[in-house]
Design brief:
The protein is mostly beta strands. It is built from one helix and eleven strands; from the N terminus they run E-E-E-E-E-E-E-E-E-H-E-E. Strands 2, 4, 5, 6, 9, 10 and 11 form a seven-stranded mixed beta sheet that branches. The protein is globular, with a radius of gyration of 13 Å.
Length: about 120
Amino acid sequence: QVQLVESGGGLVQAGGSLRLSCAASGRTRSSYAMGWFRQAPGKEREFVTAISWSGISTYVTDSVKGRFTISRDNAKNTVYLQMNSLKPEDTALYYCAAARSSDPVVLSTTQEYWGRGTQVTVSS
């Protein structure tokens, strides 16, 4: 089992930045891809971005390209999401996820573990 705990959410004005963190514990020796999803009120959960175990490969949805950057520090078992140029439409509950594959594309469709989420609110 892998436990995921997100942090770093909050309230920010449009154009601002936030950095989310996701700390993994448990069976973290396996080569998991990790990533982020989000769910806005009244909408379905959607994929945001993911990163391979090695950190070399990433996969990102078009709506956040050029604004959001994912990274990971395996020594700390932590994945980060740097969010810049935030827009009101980025407001959502952001979830961390992990997949039993090192491929970030696989994580976009198949996830084995979830965190409880951290709220991001962007005011206009």
